Amino acid sequence: MRKISLSAGYTCYGCRSVGPKGLWGYHAVRSCSAPALPAGRITARQAADLWERHFAERGVTEPDHSSHYILAYLLGAKTIESLEQGKLTEFLSPEKTEQMWKLCSKRLSRMPVQYVIEEWDFRDLTLKMKPPVFIPRPETEELVELVLTDLQMKPGTEVGTQETCLEVGCGSGAISLSLLKSWPQLKAIAVDQSQDAVDLTGENALRLGLQDRLQIHHLDVMKDAETVLSLCSSVSVLVSNPPYLFSEDMTALEPEVYRFEDHAALDGGNDGLEVIKHILTLAPQILSDHGRVYLEVDPRHPPLIQQWVEVNVEEMHYVETRHDISGRPRFCILRKEKSNKDHKLDLD
Amino acid sequence: MAFRRAIHLLPRGKDCVYSLCIPCLHTSPNAISQTVRFPQHHCGRTTRTLHTGTPLMVAKILSVDELFSKKSLQEYLKKTEAEYNECLRAANSGVPEEQSSEDTLMSKRTKVSLLAPLIQSIRELDAKQREMAETEALLKDEDPALRELAELESEGCLQEIQDIRQEILNLLIPEEEADLSDLVLEVTAGVGGQEAMLFTNEVFHMYQGYAYHHGWSFDILEYMTNDLGGVRSALASISGSQSYKRMKFEGGVHRVQRVPKTEKHGRMHTSTMTVAILPQPTEISFTINSKDLKIETKRASGAGGQHVNTTDSAVRIVHLPTGVVAECQQERSQIKNKEKAMKALRAKLYSIKLEEETSKRYNQRKIQIGTKGRSEKIRTYHFPQDRITDHRIGLTVHDMKNFLLGEDLLEEMNSSLQEFSNQETLEELLGENNQQGS
């Protein structure tokens, strides 16, 4: 019974094109590049091993993790390590086998695992992922941690005080939604220049039931500065993981990033500071007094930002640089200081 | 010394229930138990089940009555009451004459308030026992109606006496520092190769079942498998009411005897695995200097950030001064893996610290609180005979399948261990340790 349906599935599969269509039609996988569906039953472990080898042969990065995450996803777990013991030695159903082949073939085209399984975790949230919306990186989890720690330390943030946060370039919504989830008194405004990102943030907010405290706007801070200012004033936290790659580095990116993710979320111009400078210029008008800016940046950026702000944005005070888990200078914290101006006048 | 410790911990004594009042725990047909239940106003509580009749039991778990018939206990209670009265008199006598006696007065006042619940129970017990004596006289009365009434009354009285005695015992047993904490469970395969690893996995899941049975959370921190479905080692964080207290007797070497699935000649193998129960310290009670930590991730090399999209979110943390390592790859989120690895690391480091502090204190006991380094064989799982024997108290139960579910049978085993341990504590308290030869 099983064998028949499997071979039927195989025949059917042979004449189907599995590659992602449309946008990446150019990179679509031809089904012949994937290993043939097994004729008999195979266990979950065998399927994972087979694809791991195949990925490795084809030069796909993280061959082991790719095949493991896809398999775990199909079996209803997040990681192969958290999979119920024994599942690996069980036979895969013909349907699951076919799905495994379909998803792994996508990965073979270098599509990131997060897009292949259409979801990923960010802190304690599981978010839907959709190309070409930027996939949140682990460093950004630490950015959220910085904001949350400061919110906790801040005096007078007991129940009742309403804090508002603005996120520039929300992508999948990871930062805003994490903050809203962990800080029940917080309201957030999220903006992005990409309609795909705005839609995905909205979808994720709805899934997590956080839509009531989140406003999402489709706008570009580079062009619609006035709209941004009209939407937000007296914001206490401005957080952003802006595009910060140097344009010249773009071509050196792995295919997973270069081919599949929105370049507008990555490319920060010649010095990687284009969007950052823009955000910092607007910051004094957006923030309340002592309001803070939290930025994720390239490790080369912090000293450049500090210098630039001191010269160009009077009301912003550079507070500190924080390092990521691997010890790279990764985050910049700045504060709005109204008294800054008066202070300077006094000095003159 | 032991006495002072008891006093110190008395206010928490109420939480220290010996055998938890959970009904239906003792419904298993495998233990012969004598459950006495009285319908009066105590119907909300289940009486303690006493395993006195179980023939396979070697260690002596004494009943409440047996404990109370001990002269030493009676003397101890009398002594405590006398001390209480003395302190109370001193505390009430008013103004201290010199500076030094002010401290004494303070300590006496503290003692009074600490001892109050115990003294109250002792007095209640006295009153009830007098009442009982009066009722007993009526039992011999000639009027049958009066006799019947007296019988009813004495039944109620007996039950109350039993309850108060239990209460007194609870107040006497000191609570351990770690009793209120959550814990990290560590299982490690011992001798026996693949078979030991398979058994390690079964035991790990038995505790998972035990946690669910109690409504505790069971969060896997580390799970090192081999290709054949065995587990080299695994760590899980368990939290919930009384979790450490109920799990702490599980630490030690567990031995399995059976014919492994992989055995071709039908020979029986003996393999072992080790369980360690590590109390999970709170952030406040145990701090680790972040400068002592080396955190390793796959993103450590290269540019990181937006430059790369890696999915390997495993985190490994090394505590440099001790070389203790914890790692986690259970989660897709790197920060979650880091949190879990930190949790495991904290528990590992804390248990090393506790081990140093407490090893002296517990050396004399049959029931060791299981943390690292306990090499004592505590239990045998004998599959052909379908029995599980705990060597510390000589208790045997049957029905392996049921036991490995981690539900009623394991709970029953645990209650006996708890009772026996409490008894040992009590004996220590009463200074009987040396006379305990047999």
UniProtKB/TrEMBL annotation, chain A:
Which enzyme class?
A: transferase
Per the database record, which ranges form the Release factor glutamine methyltransferase N-terminal domain? Answer: 50-117
EC number(s) recorded for this UniProt protein: 2.1.1.297
Q: InterPro entries recorded for this chain?
A: DNA_methylase_N6_adenine_CS (IPR002052), HemK-like (IPR004556), N5-glutamine_MTase (IPR050320), PrmC_N (IPR040758), SAM-dependent_MTases_sf (IPR029063), Small_mtfrase_dom (IPR007848)
- Give the source's domain of life in one word: Eukaryota
Provide the GO biological process annotations: methylation
| Domain annotation Methyltransferase small: ranges | 147-245
Q: Where are the transmembrane segments?
A: none
Matching PROSITE patterns:
N6_MTASE (PS00092)
The molecular function terms in GO held by this entry are: peptide chain release factor N(5)-glutamine methyltransferase activity
* Assigned keywords, A-Z: Methyltransferase, S-adenosyl-L-methionine, Transferase
Q: Which reaction does it catalyse?
A: L-glutaminyl-[peptide chain release factor] + S-adenosyl-L-methionine = N(5)-methyl-L-glutaminyl-[peptide chain release factor] + S-adenosyl-L-homocysteine + H(+)
Q: Name one Pfam family in it.
A: PrmC_N
Task: List the protein's name.
Answer: peptide chain release factor N(5)-glutamine methyltransferase
UniProtKB/TrEMBL annotation, chain B:
Give the matching InterPro entries: PCRF (IPR005139), Pep_chain_release_fac_I (IPR000352), Pep_chain_release_fac_I_sf (IPR045853), Prokaryotic/Mito_RF (IPR050057)
Q: Does the keyword Protein biosynthesis apply?
A: yes
Coiled coil residues, start to end? 328-355
Gene3D superfamilies (UniProt xref): 3.30.160.20, 3.30.70.1660, 6.10.140.1950
- Where in the numbering of this chain does the Prokaryotic-type class I peptide chain release factors domain appear? 299-315
Keyword Coiled coil set for record: yes
Keywords of the record:
Coiled coil, Protein biosynthesis
- The protein here is known as Prokaryotic-type class I peptide chain release factors domain-containing protein
One GO cellular component term, please give it: cytoplasm
Family assignment from sequence similarity: Belongs to the prokaryotic/mitochondrial release factor family.
One GO biological process term is: translation
Instruction: Note the Pfam families from the entry.
Output: PCRF, RF-1
